[in-house]
Amino acid sequence: MTHDRLDLVSKLYQPSGWPRILEAASGSPSGAPLVVDLDPTTFCDLACPECISGKLLNQGRFTPERLAALAEELVALSVRAVVLIGGGEPLAHRGTRRVLRILGEAGLAVGVVTNGTMIRQNLTELAQYASWVRVSVDAGTAETYGRFRPDRKGRSVFDKVIGNMRLLAAEKKGALGYSFLVMSRQEPDGTTVTNHHEVLRAAELAHDIGCDYFETKAMFDDDHHIVQVPRTMLDSVDRQLAEAARLESDRFQLVNSSTLTSLRGHVGPVQPKAYDRCRVAELRTLITPSGVYVCAYHRGNPLARIGDAVTDDLATIWQKSDRGIVDPSRDCRFHCARHRSNLELERIAEGTGEPPLTEDYDPFL
């Protein structure tokens, strides 16, 4: 039986997480999160103009010792899945290889979101322990890559990233994804620069590399609202994806994020929420060098900070914190990928949800 990797609602019904799902649905504080986003560092070696975390970069990192201790604490809390992400570039931290090893050997599922420039140095651990690695490429050629994902000297490192992805494709046990964020910007001279015309080329390249999936996404602004794009651009992306469909097989999928689906449905940048407590905040959290936050959408927001993982252990932070400090009806009017999960948790609390599944298939709620 195959499952959509982006169907977050059905993932709630997996048996191993069900007790904590019921806990969260009831509105009770959970004993621990099921999934943790972990930023090992705020450093990044690229200088992407559209980076949504640009203001948060280069503001600290965990020591290798503290990062390893954090990994052990995640294991002790019976967290089921960890996503190494940023903020910065997670593979830029020299302690990340050890974290992959600790989590992987303890049986936790590990996802890695990376720009791909440092895959080679971390290849052994990524190939052995990562459940999936998603590389943010956002282009199909070196020239376009250089416009949207330049390094700190303004150069394109596209060929290096693609070469690294080929290395991982040859050795990986988990899945490898090629992520394409549809972007455009207006230059000072009034011309528009975009990458949308390279969706098909990038999908073909992803297939050639040996990726397991190719994902297209829409841009967010600094407040996490989906950036609206001209209809012509969206139509062009859809035509290219329709042509790329010929590449699909049991070994290669085209994945559409909910952000693009929202654009197609003419959903505006605001996603109203009728509930004042995020039940998903009992199931997921974000740990960064600058603090522990209710969720990744509020990375760097002092009003959503629930602790300091540099100085305190995670069990204590979780026990003492109030994840209800964020009111979704007031604080989360952007597009949230877990809005439907929150609505489903309400259904579960009312007794109108589905019966739990008989087996687990993907812990990344």
Automatic annotation (TrEMBL):
GO molecular function: catalytic activity; iron-sulfur cluster binding; metal ion binding
SUPFAM superfamilies reported for this sequence: Radical SAM enzymes
Superkingdom, natural source: Bacteria
Keyword list, A-Z: Iron, Iron-sulfur, Metal-binding, S-adenosyl-L-methionine
InterPro entries for the chain: Aldolase_TIM, Radical_SAM_PqqE_MftC-like, rSAM, rSAM_sf
Domain Radical SAM core: 30-260
PROSITE patterns: RADICAL_SAM
Keyword Iron: yes
Protein name as annotated: MoaA/NifB/PqqE/SkfB family radical SAM enzyme
Source organism of this protein record: Streptomyces nymphaeiformis
Classification lineage: Bacteria, Bacillati, Actinomycetota, Actinomycetes, Kitasatosporales
